[in-house]
Amino acid sequence: MSTMPKKNPLTVSRVVSLVLAYLSLCVAGGVVSSVLLMPGVFAANRVAQAIVPSLQVEGIDFDVTSLPQKSKIYAQDGTTQIAEFYEDNRIVVPIKDVSLTMRQAVVAREDRRFFEHSGVDVQGVLRAFVSNYLKDTNQGGSSLTQQYVKNVLITTAERDNDPIAQYHASEDTYARKIREMLIAVQMEKKYSKLEILQGYLNIAQFGANRLYGVETAAQYYFGVSAKDLNLVQSATIAAITKNPQNYDPSIEANQKEAQKQRNIVLDLMWEQGFIKDKSEYETARNTPIADTLSIHPMTSGCVNAGDYAFFCDYVTHKILNSEEFGKTQAAREQLLKEGGLSIVTTLDVDANKLLMETARNTIPPTDPTGFEIMMASVKPGTGEVLGFGTNRYYAVGDTGDDQTKTSMNYMVDQVDGGGSGFPVGSSIKPFNMVAWLQAGRSVNENLQTSTAYTTNEFACDNYNGKSTMYYGTTESWKVTNADGGNVNPESPLNGLVRSHNTTQASMGAVIGLCRVADAFTAVGYHDAATGETIDKNETVYSPSMMIGTVNVSPLTMANMYATLGADGVECTPIALKKVTRKTGEEIAVPKANCHQAIDKDIAQTVAYVLNQGTIRADGAGQFAKLPSGRKTFAKTGTNETTYMATGGFIPNEIATFVLMGDVQAPYQNQVANVAINGVYRSYWDGGTIAAPAWKAFMDAYADKKGMGTDVGKDYGNAASKYTTSTGGVTSIQGVTSSGSTGRLSSGNTNSNSTGTTTQGTTGDENDDNTTSGQ
């Protein structure tokens, strides 16, 4: 029994064969063949409509809403924009947010039968072939849908850094055209015309320098949103995409041609009935293009962030270094530049503004000394970095001999775009007191002090089962106070109030260096270059670290003071509060991990002593006393004649650290016998340069936030637990000192130890020109 032959179904291969046959005949026979095949060509639209939507292109997402777009970084208020990042400058908007005239202009220019065909405008293709082969022109004939497909293929290839795919997406061959046609047919089956038009308007290039998407173009050329584009503006933008490099009207040399191309669009809109009023058409056509422009420069990256630039740089490094944003740094960078992220940071606009102003007022960028000033602020108990201050302007690349610019954010660690850290002098001493109190000691004990210690006096063998121990040697460490002398005996309280190095050394000899290292680590110390805690850094782990011979960033120091200002709660500094994808999905951000690092009473006792140092006549911290009358908790510091510092806090509100000196050549360009900001001194220290900057900022910030003058706690009650002296080793809360021979004096003995020859680190700390008690 015979059967009827089966009717061959329409397949992708048949369509390909049809198109290839048509193209071959067009090439071979020119217009004659084209005319002969016209019935088949017109039927191709019906063929395309009948294809089963099964065509797939592996690895390509043609979702009209899924396009690379720029990310924006905001201050903590969520509205103040700090910066934006993009590879392609694009803001994706829905079609409803594009003006009707803009939609009409691009359809008139690119694809007049867009709303009639099924992805491939066969009449347009025929017209292009006739023109190309008969008149030797170069018309494209591609529909808007095909152009969208081409743009997606190119964008995907660029995103994947695939040069072969880039070549095939843009090569001038029939194979590429056929591929685009077939995908375009499938696109038309999956998406509506308005969805495809939306995709095209968002992906197309509308200017030189990688300016993409109608919303970005509207903002760049005219300072308006795409939904507000008028007739002239719409025609201008629609004309650009044919040749973005040569028709970009923001380039003055292009404006004559850009106006000509704009008028071509207006002519097409008039011919196609999109413009109904002839006078409107003629007025638009006669308007000089230069008169319509209001150029808003592109602002990608931190270099365009102004005084937010250093904080922007810090945020960028945090994103690139955090696995929350991708498995590799390349993936994180791609997410930042293409993910359309909304990034809300911890930056306090008021704090950052005042920090920058204070830094430049203290040492102008053009000051002949070339000294840098670096300031960082943290909110206690949260880890939130509030801002940075410096007397430099942010730049990228080689700044040559321009001392006013730098690409380095010296306020932060090396991994976050900063340097290898700084010695901070006596500003480290409050944390020696933390160690002292943790060892169960009293602030009023009488300590026998000396100008020389053998380093093995600071040994801490068998301390808390630590694997890393400090044993010291028989070498002598020479240590003196600012005037080169010594006070003996002296209590830890007076030693910190007066900032005496000899008393700090005696404290270390009593409790052992391991306790000091642990205290530093507990409040947040780590090496700026390596990230290591102090007990793992042999170059720092020595008795002289007690007077500031460390490698620490200003931000880390601000955070250490924030621990004191938060009653002993230490947090990891954070820059990000909330990061949202363009879909609305939140990305987890690095946590502050706040925890009670040291006992609350210990933190408050140290704060009490700091305050005493600002109000007592012999206090080294009196130079930092806030002029408003607010209670002051601060400590100055000086590292020989290289770096000057001041750190302190307003409890639970803000902690700030200030450091200044010549970052590039601290020993060649010392802070002595120079005029800074027009004021000459034979010797500058933390009290005479860093402290004024610190208190100027802190008072200005407190005023701005309406804190009033009644701020700061009375920590006397907490301190009373640690102010009982028995004339010897004092045990508090059941804790006793251990690990060293110690240097204690019972009662009011006054026996000075004789100094010995210094070997190794001198640790000579000239702090605040303090002479009291000597």
Automatic annotation (TrEMBL):
GO molecular function, one term: serine-type D-Ala-D-Ala carboxypeptidase activity
Domain Penicillin-binding protein transpeptidase residue range list: 420-698
Lineage, top ranks: Bacteria, Bacillati, Actinomycetota, Actinomycetes, Bifidobacteriales
Catalytic activity: [GlcNAc-(1->4)-Mur2Ac(oyl-L-Ala-gamma-D-Glu-L-Lys-D-Ala-D-Ala)](n)-di-trans,octa-cis-undecaprenyl diphosphate + beta-D-GlcNAc-(1->4)-Mur2Ac(oyl-L-Ala-gamma-D-Glu-L-Lys-D-Ala-D-Ala)-di-trans,octa-cis-undecaprenyl diphosphate = [GlcNAc-(1->4)-Mur2Ac(oyl-L-Ala-gamma-D-Glu-L-Lys-D-Ala-D-Ala)](n+1)-di-trans,octa-cis-undecaprenyl diphosphate + di-trans,octa-cis-undecaprenyl diphosphate + H(+); Preferential cleavage: (Ac)2-L-Lys-D-Ala-|-D-Ala. Also transpeptidation of peptidyl-alanyl moieties that are N-acyl substituents of D-alanine
The keyword Zinc belongs to this UniProt entry's keyword annotation: no
Keyword tags: Carboxypeptidase, Cell shape, Cell wall biogenesis/degradation, Glycosyltransferase, Hydrolase, Multifunctional enzyme, Peptidoglycan synthesis, Protease, Transferase
Gene Ontology CC: outer membrane-bounded periplasmic space
Name recorded for this polypeptide: Penicillin-binding protein
SUPFAM superfamilies from the UniProt entry: beta-lactamase/transpeptidase-like, Lysozyme-like
UniProt superkingdom: Bacteria
Composition bias type Low complexity, residue spans: 734-774
Span list, region Disordered: 726-774
InterPro entries listed in its UniProt record: Beta-lactam/transpept-like, Glyco_trans_51, Glycosyltr_51/Transpeptidase, Lysozyme-like_dom_sf, PBP_transglycosylase, PCN-bd_Tpept
GO biological process, one term: proteolysis
Keyword Methyltransferase: no
Family: In the C-terminal section; belongs to the transpeptidase family. In the N-terminal section; belongs to the glycosyltransferase 51 family.
Source species of the chain: Bifidobacterium aerophilum
Domain Glycosyl transferase family: 81-269
